[in-house]
Design goal:
The protein has 1896 residues and is α+β, with helices and mostly antiparallel strands. The protein is built from 68 helices and 39 strands. The relative contact order is 0.03.
Length: 1896
């Protein structure tokens, strides 16, 4: 049985579960599940990823976690009981994982790998936290690392900033909005800093920060200099080159002769930490100096010098490392870095003391470089922070026994409890006598520290850190040197209790190098450590006397020499010494030492010592106290307790006499502790006051002195001492209070009243001082000449809204000092007085401050800083004190806000107040405090915010005057303050607020202010985009505030008191609110959406209900918001939230109804709705669901209205508009192609024009479409598009307003400008014929205005266009029919067919690929048949594409003989509305011997909605027409086209336009003649000149005659062609020419016979043409061929159907197939093709089948003989050829101005190029492309491939063939008498090539 779980509430999936059983829940590894019920090893629950899906899963698959359950039951909330930061890491990693994969997809590889690294780090850190084995410090450090990485990742992924406190996310409900704002700022700052250090923000009053010390870690890894072979001591120290002194102790390492540590325990532990290096030290010229001292023989390489058992310390070498070279490296690294130090040896031991300087200065003559690069290998690491922090962060270093190596002096910050008593002695140098020796001595100095009783102190000498202290020091020995210079520093850590009376003794010995190796004592020196007056040895150099002695001398009685003078100063102070003493001074021998004391217990200062021993000289007390100010601060803090005890004992001794001086001394010491160097001694002072202070009577004198100082402040000119007393106020009060407590304890509370009275009087004096500023501050200021204070520095930055004037009065330094110190005394007063009493003191004091601001800005700053510290104090946290203090605090803030002064400080005070109130919100007194704040601050806060926002906006425009306070920071501060206040307000507060308004005007002003502020909050984006927590909380506060204020708005400003301004402001606010990006939950991840929804709900819905309710309350006043609010409300309805839409859409019905009532229609609603809908949808708003909901809801409402018909029509129209707008938007966004965008825009354009008639929107889309065309370089289409706007304008002077990019101008000028632009675009598109009428239009306007200059310009342009038509080459485009089938296509394409105008050089295959690229999901249909219903309604995309041929409209131009082909070419492919394509089929029985008898053509004509070209490259098909073409008609058409092609080609060769290379002519002639002989037109002869056919088809008589004439005409054309060929043929090609002549004879014979047979059956034709006479040979025929008469030429033209059709149009491709129906070229047919003629349609790219597929196209290497494929004009006619006989036979007689064209020269010197010759042999000779044995060689080679295969292949291979063909002209035929022949009925409809048998 399933039972609800009690403890098992949440778990993590540890094994994936498929959930394959009934009700099973599918779970993935790592998912979190919430458990609802359990039953026998199974749980029922849901995954937190998909909380709506519940199911069961095995209990063993889940690891349970502890959790906290709230609100148990159906809506319980379960939170895992774990560290919140672990929960955050888990949820964040889950969110990142999705985004991380997307980074890879978006190619953001760098961020991808960085994020992966950070995620792995977070997983590892999370694991460490979960382990539970970390210390608190380690946990804190791990959390810090986690938050740094979380914030970094969130920032780089564009996620929300997480506000934190102590590394954990804060709950916005638990803190004030001000605090939340500051946490956001802090989090953003930490993200930007990306620093690993934890930086806490300073509170008020922390004017000094403790400088962070540096510590240098040095680790000796090895000493690889192995040539010594003796024990060595290595000393490391830090050396300052500029000051020429050592700044640190030495670190000492002892190594054995093998180079290892002498102490085996120190293996891998030879390390030191040089501590307390300040920032100043790091900027010094520091070096690490390492000195190597060996211990062994006197001379290293001389075994004779001294016995082996005697050991000497001898200098060996030195190494240095410049810190400047390594500092940057070790600063950036967080680990050790290795360095190698070369050890240099000294050339002269006399220079040893300065070898390190010589090495640094590179004085290479004074040292010897090592022979190898090896030496000391050390590693360095730089650490930061105080020692405790360093120990905590680097435990491994301290576990290695690191030697702490201190600075020689005190660090910058002396920490309390840091007890030192170190005397650093430097053995400088000595001067000794030779003593009768021939060589100089080897002197060794031995030093002892002896106590007063002569005892040698043990372990009081340290050579360096890292080794134990010793009792005896032996110097190193300099060989043969009577004036040795050691410069060796020795540390003497002598205990304090042994220091007094101790002395140092130096013994000097000569070290002999003889066999015995004796060390002979020859003298000594000494010095006491303390003088008689109790001061220690001064920090300076001391010259000590040397006394003679010998090796037998014993120092058992030290008193014998202690009575002697140790130095010159000592001698001068001593009486005459008797000469009988045993120790005689050596007058010529001296030794120099220097000392430096670093002690917290001993002093060298006489004045300080005199103070501490004041009782010894009571008569000098006044002088001693006066000299205390000159004592060094370090000395004072060392003896702080002793000094304080002394001062108070002096005070007790004689209060009246010494009181003021003791007070001054106390003030001096207190202010000394304000110095950053001694700031951390304040706890020592506090401890002294609490535990050691015993002056029970001191308070009386301290109060008296303090009051006396204050009372004198108005009289004294020099106030420095009074200022110092004011600065010391805090500690003076601490002494006063503690003294009073001691006195009270001792006397059981006596004199309590007197004490209280004295405090009262003291506060009266404080108020008196403060009141001086308001009365005579200016006088005081200019007499005092005050010093700049910290308050002034703050003031300079305090108010950027009114910059500080240099002449503004400055604050009194006295008042400033008092106000700065005043808040610090509250805690002391609270020990003696109640909270209310202290609060009254403070209120009186704050109230005495001047409330006006005439005293100057700086005083304002000081005053407000004092108030800020008051608010931050403990006193303010008590409700009792707040009740007293809050009014005066608010009074001052109110005044400053009114005058816009010191805004940043005021905001800080308010933030602190709100923070306190929020934390105390459970207390009843808070309600009163909030009430006070509302009354005092709400209005002025709104006023301030409006001023700041307007100022910041104006300064945004003037970029140079921006400052931080004017923008985000100060605005954010005040916004958070306002929100904090509004959040604290309850309904009672709002009620009181609204009741307190005296009039409706006041209420109106307030509502307008608060609504305006709220609007600005959302418009100005006060908070950054990633501050989502802050934005959501702000929205929540705005909702609740609006809900409180709405009733007042409704109650006060409806009906008779209706106020449009307030209502409009309210509606604008609500609209802005609902549209906020941060509230669009749909854009959030599911987890974040749930989190927001659980916390706040959907605030858009709440506000929408509020808006709807208020709208309904308007009643008749709704009409005021029509149409103004239609756009904003429409924007709200477009929010993707169904509930909001359901609430808001009915408002449109309401608007329509109210306008209908008022105006009888709703035109305004209609117009505005359409306008706004367009702009809003284009911005990305709205969707298909909205369209359906809009229609459904409004139609339902309208159904009941009397105006339902117009309403339904309007709603339907808007719905259809929305459909098109959504399509348009979808096309515009993303990577949609230009074609889609253009098509969609055209669709929308037409809708606006035809259905809605919105002229402005129509014009807007005209320009959008034009811009798209220009971008796609569709200049012709751009011109047609802009022409639409031009047509709307008239040639009038009516003024037009500024619109789009047009300035305000007259209608005439705008139309003129448009006309010029359209003409320009037609020119760029080479459609000059369309530009010429516009030129004429402009010319007419200019002429009528007598603007001859412009007229001249336009006429020249018109003339230039005529020239361009005749001279410039234009390519004829291809046309393609495209069908879009299936429901997946956009609305404007769905189940429609279009004809598209192709790009230049674009063939069918390229177009197909382009379309499939634009619609990658589409399926290409491989047949031309109409699709069935399954495809039309299918949920897919189907594309049907094939080529079509244009059917020109302007047939008259094409029929005119004198019109050049260049002109005709334009009319063939422009302004075309009809297109056709052919499909072959067999009708009736199929004749197997000659299938052409039954091969019919199905011709489909498509009629478009608009002609091409137009505003688009494609238009929709409006209707279709279908006709059938008979086989005979088709034959006529094919032969006719072939004749035209031959005429054109021959004409070009005759005009010499194709020079030299006659391959093209040869192949063309060969193809026609050979095909005719071997089965070309023979098939037509068999099919249509058969008696049986003629007799059975008497209705075709005329057509058969027409076909016969065309065949005869072809014979004559071929004859002319062969004549031309004979003249031009190359000798190598003569055999081919002969073969052509022979075949031509056979062709003529065949035709003659055929015609003879045919004539037997044709009535009326009884004569054969001369062409068939056959009397002479072909050669003879060609030789005797006479020119044709003009009559015969006219006859030929009259009879030729080409007169009707004009020239064959030219493809845009350089070579194209004759088989393509859209190109009009002729296919080569072979005998084998005659067998199955329908195969031709599969093989060619005609609309029949090959337009859909190129699978049957011929190989690309085959050469096309369709040389009419280049679409250019006719060749020009040079004068010298005008009377040429062959030319006259081919040209019409009346062509006065033949068209011209440019043709490339394809010969070299009139001969074919080698390349062409080789190509000819290659093509004609060995090619075997076809399998048909009946084909001739030329036929086989020249079988036409598909147009695209030639485009892609042959053009590159045969470039010279691309320009061989000109426009087709109609060549004449030989003279003959023929009766009139009627043209074929269909030839006038097209110039498309259809299929003919065997034509090449």
């Amino acid at each position: 049985m399933w039972t609800p779980t009690e403890d098992e509430k949440i778990g993590v999936v540890v094994c994936s579960f498929r959930g394959s059983l009934s009700h099973g829940l599918t779970l993935e590894l790592g998912e979190t599940v919430q458990i609802l019920e359990k039953c026998e090893g199974w749980y029922r629950g849901f995954s937190t990823k998909k909380p709506t899906i519940k199911g069961i899963f095995p209990a063993g698959y889940v690891h349970l976690k502890k959790a906290v359950v709230t609100n148990r039951g159906q809506y319980e909330t379960v939170v895992p009981l774990e560290d919140p930061i672990i929960t955050e890491v888990t949820s964040t990693l889950q969110e990142w994982s999705v985004l991380w994969k997307q980074l890879y997809v978006k190619h953001k590889v760098d961020l991808f790998y960085k994020l992966r690294h950070v995620m792995n780090e977070l997983i590892d850190l999370r694991r460490q936290l979960l382990s539970g084995h970390l210390t608190q410090d380690q946990v804190r450090e791990v959390k810090r690392h986690i938050t740094v990485r979380l914030d970094w990742g969130n920032e780089h992924l564009g996620l929300d900033l997480v506000p934190r406190k102590e590394f954990e996310m804060v709950d916005a409900d638990q803190i004030s909005v001000s605090d939340l704002y500051k946490m956001h700022l802090s989090s953003r700052h930490s993200v930007q800093q990306s620093t690993s250090q934890d930086g806490g923000r300073q509170r008020h009053g922390d004017s000094c920060r403790m400088p962070v010390p540096h510590h240098l870690f040095v680790n000796l890894k090895s000493f690889t200099y192995n040539t010594i072979g003796e024990d060595t001591d290595i000393f490391f120290s830090l050396y300052d080159l500029r000051e020429g002194k050592q700044i640190s102790e030495k670190f000492m390492v002892r190594l054995n002769k093998n180079g290892g540590p002498k102490n085996p325990e120190k293996v891998d532990r030879l390390c030191a930490l040089f501590t307390d290096l300040s920032n100043k030290d790091m900027k010094r010229d520091l070096y690490i100096v390492s000195q190597v001292i060996r211990t062994g023989r006197m001379l290293l390489n001389d075994s004779k010098k001294g016995p082996p058992h005697v050991q000497y310390r001898r200098p060996y070498g030195c190494a240095v490392l410049a810190m400047s070279d390594v500092l940057q490296t070790i600063s950036e690294l967080k680990e050790e870095k290795d360095f190698v130090l070369k050890v240099y040896t000294c050339n002269n031991e006399n220079e040893w003391y300065q070898i390190h300087e010589n090495i640094i200065r590179k004085s290479s003559t004074k040292y010897t470089a090592p022979s190898t690069n090896y030496g000391l290998i050390i590693s360095l690491q730089l650490l930061r922070g105080d020692m405790e922090q360093v120990r905590r962060e680097n435990p491994m270093i301290f576990n290695r026994g690191v030697a702490i190596t201190r600075k020689l002096g005190f660090p910058d910050v002396i920490m309390p409890g840091d007890i030192r008593n170190d005397l650093y002695l430097t053995l400088e140098r000595g001067d000794f006598e030779r003593g009768g020796k021939s060589v100089q001595k080897n002197i060794e100095v031995t030093m002892y520290v002896l106590y007063a009783d002569g005892e040698i102190l043990k372990e009081c000498i340290s050579l360096g850190s890292g080794e134990h202290s010793i009792s005896e020091y032996r110097s190193f020995v300099l060989y043969h040197n009577n004036s040795p210079r050691w410069s060796e520093v020795i540390k003497l850590p002598i205990p304090i209790d042994r220091f007094r009376g101790s002395h140092l003794r130096f013994e000097f010995r000569h070290c002999s190098t003889k066999d015995k190796g004796e060390k002979k004592l020859f003298g000594f020196a000494f010095t006491p450590l303390m003088r008689e007056d109790g001061t220690t040895l001064s920090d300076e150099s001391h010259e000590l006397y040397v006394y003679k002695c010998d090796e037998n001398t014993t120092f058992s009685n030290h008193a014998l020499y202690l009575g002697l003078p140790c130095c010159k100063d000592d001698f001068n102070g001593c009486p005459n010494i008797p000469s009988s003493l045993i120790f005689q001074r050596s007058t010529k021998e001296t030794i120099w030492i220097s000392t430096q004391l670093s002690s917290t217990k001993l002093t060298q200062n006489v004045d300080l010592l005199a103070l501490l021993k004041w009782k010894a000289h009571p008569d000098r007390v006044m002088d001693i106290l006066g000299r205390l100010r000159h004592v060094c601060g370090e000395e004072i803090v060392k003896f702080l307790q002793d000094i304080l005890d002394t001062l108070f004992s002096i005070l007790d001794d004689n209060t009246d006499k010494y009181g003021p001086l003791v007070f001054q001394s106390l003030v001096f010491i207190i202010n000394l502790l304000r110095d950053s160097k001694f700031y951390h001694f304040r706890p020592v002072m506090d401890t002294y006051i609490q535990k050691h202070f015993a002056g029970a009577l001191a308070y009386k004198e301290l109060i008296r002195c303090l009051k006396w100082y204050m009372d004198r402040s108005a009289e004294v000119v020099r106030q420095d001492h009074i200022q110092e007393a004011m600065r010391a106020l805090e500690y003076l009060f601490k002494f006063i209070v503690q003294s009073r407590i001691l006195y009270s304890r001792a006397t059981c509370g006596m004199e309590e009243d007197q004490f209280r009275a004295s405090i009262q009087e003291l506060f009266q004096s404080i108020r008196f001082v403060l009141s001086l500023d308001s009365r005579s501050s200016e006088t005081l200021i200019f007499t005092q000449g005050p010093q700049p204070t910290t308050g002034q520095a703050t003031a300079i930055q305090g108010n950027c809204l009114q910059p500080l004037s240099c002449n503004a009065p400055r604050p009194s330094p006295l008042s400033a000092a008092l106000l700065n110190s005043f808040p610090a005394i509250f805690d002391e007063l609270l020990q003696m007085f109640t909270v209310q009493e202290v609060a009254e003191f403070v209120r009186g004091t704050l109230g005495s401050m001047p409330s006006t601001v005439h005293i100057g800005q700086s005083m304002d700053v000081v005053k407000l800083q004092s108030i800020a510290r008051t608010v931050d104090s403990r006193l303010f946290s008590f409700p009792e004190s707040r009740r007293i203090l809050l009014p005066v605090v608010l009074h001052h803030i109110h005044l400053h806000l009114r005058q816009q002064k010191e805004l940043l400080i005021c905001s800080g005070i308010l933030s602190s107040i709100f923070s306190i109130i929020k934390s105390s919100s459970l207390e009843s007194s808070v309600q009163e405090e909030v009430e006070m704040m509302v009354e005092s601050l709400l209005d002025v806060l709104l006023q301030t915010l409006l001023a700041i926002m307007s100022k910041s906006q104006s300064q945004e425009a003037v970029r140079g005057q921006r400052c931080p306070q004017c923008t985000a920071e100060i605005t954010g501060e005040y916004v958070s303050c306002l929100l904090s206040l509004l959040r604290q307000m309850s309904d009672i507060h709002f009620q009181h607020l609204l009741d307190n308004f005296q009039s409706k005007e006041e209420l109106k002003e307030f509502l307008l202010k608060i609504f305006c502020v709220f609007r600005n909050l959302m418009k100005l984006s006060i908070f950054p985009r990633d501050w989502n927590v802050m934005r959501l909380l702000t929205s929540n506060i705005i909702v609740s505030t609006t809900q409180y204020l709405s009733p007042a708005l409704h109650k006060s400003f409806t009906d008779a008191d209706f106020d449009f301004k307030v209502w409009n402001s309210y509606f604008s606010l609500v609209v802005l609110f609902i549209n906020q990006p941060s509230l669009q939950l749909e854009t959030l991840t599911p987890a974040k959406r749930k989190k927001v929804f659980d916390k706040y709900g959907d605030m858009r819905v709440m506000m929408a209900y509020e808006l709807f309710s208020m709208w309904q309350n308007l009643g008749e006043n709704k009409i005021h918001f029509i149409p103004g609010m239609i756009g904003p409300f429409l924007g709200v309805t477009l929010v993707p939230q169904n509930e909001v839409r359901n609430i808001m859409i009915p408002i449109f019905h309401d608007m329509m109804d109210w306008e209908q009532r008022k105006n009888g229609n709703f035109k305004q609603v209609e117009a505005e709705l359409i306008d706004k809908l367009d702009s809003l949808v284009s911005e990305g708003k709205g969707d298909e669901n909205y369209r359906e909901l809009f229609s459904l809801l409004l139609l339902e409402k309208i159904e009941q209205e009397t105006w339902r018909e117009t309403g339904i029509s309007f709603v339907t129209s808007v719905t259809r508009l929305m459909e098109r707008l959504l399509d348009y938007r979808d096309c515009m966004k993303g990577d949609e192609t230009e074609n889609k965008k253009i098509g969609c825009t055209v669709n929308l354009l037409n809708f606006y024009k035809s259905e809605i008639n919105k002229e402005e929107m129509y014009i807007r889309y005209i320009h959008k479409l034009c811009d798209m065309h220009l971008q796609a370089e569709n200049y012709t289409e751009a011109a047609f598009t802009l022409l639409l706007y031009w047509e709307l304008l008239h040639w009038e002077e009516r003024p037009l307003r500024e619109f789009l990019h047009y300035p305000a101008q007259s209608e005439w000028h705008r139309k003129e400008g448009l006309c010029r632009k359209v003409i320009h675009y037609f020119n760029k598109g080479k459609c000059w014929e369309y530009g010429i009428p516009l030129c004429r239009e402009l010319a007419f306007q200019y002429e009528s205005l007598y603007d001859y200059q412009s007229l001249s310009w336009i006429r020249k342009m018109e003339a230039a266009y005529y020239d361009n038509i005749m001279e410039q080459q234009r390519l004829e485009p291809e046309f393609f029919r495209v069908g879009f089938y299936g429901r997946k296509f956009p609305f404007f394409l769905r189940n429609k067919e279009f004809v598209c105008r192709g790009h230049d050089y674009e063939r069918l295959e390229a177009f197909q690929q382009r379309m499939l690229g634009e619609f990658p999901q589409a399926i290409s249909m491989q047949h031309p048949n109409q699709p069935d219903e399954g495809i039309l309604q299918g949920d897919a995309q189907y594309l049907q594409i094939y080529a079509v041929t244009p059917v020109p409209e302007n047939i008259d131009v094409l029929q005119m003989d004198r019109v050049p082909d260049r002109i005709k070419s334009f009319y063939r492919v422009n302004n075309v509305r009809r297109f056709r394509y052919d499909r072959p089929f067999h009708k009736g029985p199929k004749d197997r011997e000659n299938e052409f008898k039954s091969l019919w053509i199905e011709r489909t004509t498509l009629i478009l909605t608009h002609p091409l070209p137009g505003i688009s490259r494609w238009f929709e098909v409006d209707k279709r027409e279908l006709v059938e073409v008979s086989p005979l008609e088709n034959a006529i058409y094919v032969v006719e086209n072939k004749n035209q092609e031959l005429r054109t080609l021959i004409s070009q060769y005759q005009h010499k336009q194709l020079h030299g290379n006659i391959n093209l002519l040869s192949m063309c002639l060969n193809g026609v003649i050979d095909a005719a002989v071997n089965g070309g037109i023979a098939r037509y002869q068999e099919a249509f000149f058969d008696k049986e056919y003629i007799s059975s088809h008497p209705e075709d008589t005329e057509k058969i005659t027409q076909l016969k004439d065309l065949m005869q005409e072809q014979v004559h054309i071929l004859g002319v062609g062969l004549a031309v060929h004979e003249k031009l043929v190359h000798p190598e090609m003569r055999p081919l020419h002969k073969k052509l002549i022979d075949q031509f004879q056979m062709m003529r014979s065949s035709l003659c016979h055929c015609f003879y047979v045919a004539l037997q059956g044709l009535p009326g034709l009884d004569k054969l043409s001369p062409a068939c006479s056959g009397a002479s040979t072909p050669r003879g025929i060609l030789a005797t061929h006479s020119p044709m008469s003009p009559e015969s030429i006219k006859l030929m033209h009259r009879h030729s159907p080409l007169n009707v059709l004009g020239s064959v149009r030219h493809s845009s491709s350089s070579l194209s197939s004759h088989t393509s129906s859209e190109t009009g070229n002729l296919l080569i047919l072979t005998d084998s093709m005659m067998e199955h003629p329908e195969d031709l349609y599969r093989m060619q790219p005609s609309p029949s089948s090959s337009s859909l597929s190129s699978t049957h196209s011929a190989p690309s290497q085959m050469i096309n003989s369709g040389h009419g494929s280049i679409r250019v004009g006719s060749p020009s006619l040079p004068d010298r050829y005008r009377h040429n006989r062959e030319m006259l036979m081919l040209l019409p007689p009346h062509r006065d101005r033949p068209s011209s064209a440019m043709y490339p020269n394809i010969t070299e010197n009139g001969q074919p190029t080698n390349h062409q010759r080789a190509l000819y042999h290659q093509v004609i000779g060995p090619c075997k492309p076809c399998s048909d044995p009946n084909l001739s060689v030329a036929d086989k080679v020249l079988t036409a491939p598909s147009s695209w295969s030639l485009d892609s292949g042959t053009r590159d291979t045969l470039p010279f063939l691309s320009a061989h063909v000109g426009s087709v002209m109609a060549p004449p035929v030989p003279p003959r008498t023929l009766p009139p022949v009627t043209p074929a009925p269909y030839t006038c409809l097209t110039h498309q090539s259809t299929i003919g048998p065997g034509w090449q």
